[in-house]
Design brief:
The protein is mainly beta. The protein has a domain of 75 residues: Roll (Ubiquitin-like (UB roll)). It has 1 helix and 7 strands. The strands form 2 sheets. Strands 2-1-7-5-6 form a 5-stranded mixed β-sheet. It binds FE2/S2 (inorganic) cluster (FES).
Length: 134
């Protein structure tokens, strides 16, 4: 059975190192929260934004849908839209998940969230019409 999902990543996009971008130095006693990052179970702490939760595990939030370059947010206040990630939601049929986009910098991690950092490439991503948005 094939999975019919709009959440599948583009395998042609190069991937960055798994080295975390952020190191947690304070507030380490908050309650652990488990969520899924690109299918792998990982831990955040209650009250973390998705940006913090993700970047304590890897160097990027997403890859540009235009150039494929890794992105890790910019403004951190919900204004620049550089931190879009996708949250997989179940629609009741196993294997038929849908995705909603959320801003990682202004969304609090919740237990069981299924976050995807791979995005489908935009049409015309490799030509002159789509490459100026990074
Ligand atoms: S980092 Fe700018 S909107 Fe999230």
């Amino acid at each position: 059975m094939s999975r019919t999902s709009h959440c599948l990543p583009d395998a042609s996009v190069p991937r960055a190192s798994a080295q975390p971008q952020l190191t947690r130095l304070a507030e380490t006693a908050r309650t652990p929260v488990m969520f899924y990052l690109d299918g792998a179970p990982v831990q955040a702490l209650a009250g973390d934004t998705l940006l913090t939760a993700i970047l304590t595990h890897q160097r990027h939030l997403r890859f540009s849908e235009f150039s494929g370059a890794p992105r890790a947010g910019f403004c951190l206040i919900g204004a620049c839209q550089d931190c879009w990630v996708r949250c997989e939601t179940s629609v009741g049929v196993p294997g038929d998940a849908q995705c909603i986009r959320v801003r990682a910098c202004s969304t609090t991690v919740q237990a069981g969230m299924r976050i995807l950092t791979d995005a489908p490439r935009a049409p015309h991503a490799d030509d002159d019409r789509g490459g100026a948005h990074d």
